[in-house]
Specification:
By secondary structure, this protein is α/β, with parallel strands linked by helices. It has 3 helices and 8 strands, in the order E-H-E-H-E-E-E-H-E-E-E. A 4-stranded mixed β-sheet has the order 1-4-3-2, covered by helices on one side. The protein starts with 5 loop residues before the first strand and ends with a strand.
């Protein structure tokens, strides 16, 4: 049995970045812990100062399969390339036939650029487009395939 894990992303604007990634991955806001009607109730119960309540945002896979995502506000901005990135298999991944996968990738690029992402580059494999390297609204790189 593997160990459960989640991914934490440092950022300037947690709610905005969480909204982007919810759209990109089909994730939803993580419900408040059991026994609490909202995150605000949980924060108040644990005496988290009110001015810190918007310094994080939390997403989960609605099917409970993928890892949780946490977005934490930090004072510094991103300055170098990620050492870790997500491969968003919007087209079905390389297991899907190219003729099926690539139009899905193109649609996802359009949808995510409308939501604030930017295209970094399009990479080819065997003479045809294979995946698109993108950056989220805060510059974190990810790939669409």
């Amino acid at each position: 049995m593997g160990t459960r894990w989640s991914l934490t992303i440092d950022c300037a604007r947690p709610a905005r970045l969480a909204a982007f990634w919810a759209l990109a991955l089909g994730y939803t806001e993580k419900p408040a812990p059991a026994g609490f009607g909202s995150w605000e109730e949980w924060f108040a119960h644990h005496e988290v100062p009110e001015d810190e309540w918007d310094q994080g945002a939390y997403l989960c896979d609605p099917e409970g399969v993928g890892p949780g995502l946490t977005f934490m506000q930090v004072p510094e901005s991103k300055v170098v390339k990620n050492r870790l990135h997500l491969d968003v298999q919007a087209g079905g991944g390389r297991e899907a036939p190219w003729e099926v996968r690539w139009p899905r990738v193109v649609e996802a690029v359009e949808r995510l650029t409308a939501a604030g992402a930017t295209v970094v580059r399009e990479d080819e494999l065997q003479g045809r487009p294979d995946h698109v390297v993108m950056a989220d609204p805060e510059g974190n790189e990810f790939c669409l395939l």
